[in-house]
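Quick start: read one record
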Amino acid sequence: MNILDNTASGTDTPICSAKGCRADAVWVLAWNNPKLHTPERRKTWLACEEHREHLSKFLDMRGFLKDVVTLEEWSAAEGQ
């Protein structure tokens, strides 16, 4: 997924995926649903500092959460 697909209108700033949140994203939560996705596939949610723990717990309770990294780290890895 291109992280910039989840940007604030008119900007290139990625925003949090939490419902109704318009804060800048700081974290990338990589996940997959094993019933739907191959093991190597990663979908992403973005999170601000305030929503990182809540979104992580939501995904982890379902067994979907695979990794949590900073947006900076994720972007650097995508650029390689």
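The first strand starts at residue 27 and ends at 31.
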